[in-house]
Amino acid sequence: MQLLIARHGQTVWNVERRIQGWGDSPLTDEGRAQARQLGARLSGVDLAGVYSSDLGRAIETAKIIADGRDVVRETLFDLRETSWGEWEGKTGAEIDAAEPERWARFISRGRAMNEEEDDTEWETTTAVPGGETLVHACARIASALKAIRAAHPGDDEQVLVVGHGGSLRFFITLALGLPPRRIRRMTLDNASLTRILYLHGHPPIIQCINDTGHHGGDAK
């Protein structure tokens, strides 16, 4: 199976730099244009399935990409973004102003640059009140991946997953055998495309990460 991973298009909260998590914010006109560009990029791909998070921004992006295709779209709770609890809907500046000590402690942890630096506690214990840890969020993504692979066992099947910039990076850490905290070493832009190949009897192969070549011009 070739897994095509796409982050949702730009949202209002993306522009305002607000933490989204399980909260929701509508796509901007630019975000819808990004989704259309990605849809054009994938127009020649025979998709065996389209899966998205059950949050509105991902659902709308998947709908735009799959427009006109004879393919079933399915939403999965486990593809949701990491939950950021009571910080959702707020900017970093707003949180810093209200809770400077907690904000400083939160952003300073989990920054180990190599495996010799022990920051494992951060990914397993640190969560915003009402939110979830990285380990819990990664487990959700692993569950979703297991379900999708079971539904598409063929090596030649191509499947699209539309989700979120935070949680989708767990697909990459899982493929590479990295701990969840390593998502802080990578980024996924709005409506970007990442490809991971799963073949029977072989470890996952990452074919590309964060490809945005379809934006800003004719899709290729």
Please provide a written account of the structure:
The protein contains eight helices and six strands. With 220 residues, it is of the alpha/beta class. It has a single domain, classed as 3-Layer(aba) Sandwich (Rossmann fold). It has a six-stranded mixed sheet with strand order 3-2-4-1-5-6, with helices on both faces. The two termini are 22 Å apart.
Secondary-structure topology with pairs:
Blueprint: E1 2-7, H1 12-16, H2 29-41, E2 47-53, H3 56-65, E3 73-76, H4 92-98, H5 100-108, H6 120-125, H7 134-151, E4 158-163, H8 169-176, E5 193-197, E6 205-211
Parallel strand pairs: 1-4, 2-3, 2-4
Antiparallel strand pairs: 1-5, 5-6
Keywords, please?
220 residues; alpha/beta; Rossmann fold; six-stranded mixed sheet; 8 helices; 6 strands; 35% helix; 16% strand; globular
The averaged pLDDT comes out at 91
Q: Characterize the largest beta sheet: strand count, sense, and whether it forms a barrel.
A: 6 strands, mixed
Question: How much helix is in the residues?
Answer: 25-40%
Structural class: alpha/beta
Tally the helices: 8
Report the count of strand segments. Answer: 6
Oligomer: single chain
User: CA-to-CA gap between the ends?
Assistant: 22 Å
CATH H-level homologous superfamily name = Phosphoglycerate mutase-like
| CATH level 3 topology | Rossmann fold
Whole-number count of domains: 1
Spatial order of the strands forming the largest sheet? 3-2-4-1-5-6
Structural shape = globular
SS strand fraction: 15-25%
User: Per CATH, which architecture?
Assistant: 3-Layer(aba) Sandwich
